[in-house]
Amino acid sequence: MSDAKNSRAQARSGAGIWLDQHLYSVVSSLGRAVRRPWATLLTIGVMAVAFALPLGLWLALQNVGHFAGDVQQSREIDLFLTPETPVARAQALAETLRARDDVASVELRTPDQGLAEFRQRSGLADSLDLLDGNPLPALLVVVPEGDEARLVAALEALPETDLLQHDAAWRERLTGWMGFGERLTWVLAALFGLGALLVVGNTVRLDIQSRREEIGVLQLLGASDGFIRRPFVYLGAWYGLAAGALALGLLTLAALALRDPLAALARSYGSPFALSGLDPLGAALVVLAATIVGWLGAWLVTGHFLRQTRPTAT
């Protein structure tokens, strides 16, 4: 029983020592960063800009996608029927199209509905009253499902078709540009992430050089590489954590500066668009990723230094 108690006490003692060492490294690394405010702020500022630029571009692309409209709406096919097509025939044609497997939905807008909508939006009610009749044709708004090319060909072949308006080319170009923008965002994120890695690595390297003699004494006393590396790794993590938070702050300020002009522009197009940012989970992931980048940069630099200065056996 005594041996079992001693082993459990030793295990708890070992875990306590390990935890105390980590807590001491966390606090001491934060203290070293605070004692050098200008150098710390410079490092954090450069890293924050490196994180904010690709993240801001990604957010801009997301908002552009929302502003461009719903993808389903951009797939709509406007089928204008001939003026002599009666409403009953337009209704029958709409039912026929709804039965097709490549059609998601069909909306019929009669000439009277079209004229009322035009009268409301154009502000030309007095001029429209002078017309003898309704010059507007019936309109079928068709939302395709599946192969659009086959459906477009079938609609163009209808004898009632007068004009077919399809925005597939515009949508394909927009999709292409959005895909290019997303790829550009990832490339910039990799480049700026590498830049942030180098910045934190160089800062930690300078800190290591200033404590070179202290590290040498620890190595002679038999300190492990993990014990020596630990405070520098936590220092890099602190840099990354602060840089991620500052990057979110910069993006918030940019959003505040752009929100009103973008809202006014959206209102001019009759859109309720509002600039959106990161949700809490996304913001937390950004800070976590920045912390990992700072930790990784410090770990790589410290490991390289320890491999070069490790005492050799005689």
Automatic annotation (TrEMBL):
Subcellular location: Cell inner membrane
Topology with respect to the bilayer: Multi-pass membrane protein
Domain FtsX extracellular: 76-148
Spans through the membrane: 38-61, 184-204, 232-258, 278-301
Keyword Cell division: yes
Annotated source species: Pseudoxanthomonas mexicana
Pfam families: FtsX (PF02687), FtsX_ECD (PF18075)
All residue ranges annotated as the ABC3 transporter permease C-terminal domain in the record: 187-307
Highest taxon listed in the record's lineage: Bacteria
Major localization class: membrane
Protein name: Cell division protein FtsX
Function: Part of the ABC transporter FtsEX involved in cellular division.
Cell membrane found in the keyword field: yes
Quaternary state and interactors: Forms a membrane-associated complex with FtsE.
Entry keyword set: Cell cycle, Cell division, Cell inner membrane, Cell membrane, Membrane, Transmembrane, Transmembrane helix
